[in-house]
Specification:
By secondary structure, the protein is an alpha+beta fold. It contains 2 helices and 3 strands; from the N terminus they run E-H-H-E-E.
């Protein structure tokens, strides 16, 4: 299968090990009470995995968060 790969990263503090375990869960946020619903990464995960039949993963790096997204170039009809 041929895929398109995209890497997205920032230069922030990264994501703690505990938060990594839950970061794709709906309504999980490390900033509860600060106006964040905890849906952003869940929406990204569901869009990539279920709608586009791809993969999304997190790679921990010192002082940054890096997400790798792989999406098939051709979607199969289901």
């Amino acid at each position: 299968m041929t895929v398109t790969m995209s890497t997205h990263q920032d230069n922030g503090v990264g994501i703690s090990e505990d938060d990594q375990k839950h970061m794709f869960d709906p309504f999980y946020t490390s900033q509860l009470g600060e106006g964040n619903l905890g849906l952003g990464l869940n929406i990204a995960y569901n869009s990539v995995v279920y709608a586009l039949k791809g993969e999304i993963s997190y790679e921990h790096q010192a002082n940054e968060a890096r997400f790798v997204i792989k999406i098939p170039k051709k979607l199969e009809n289901t």
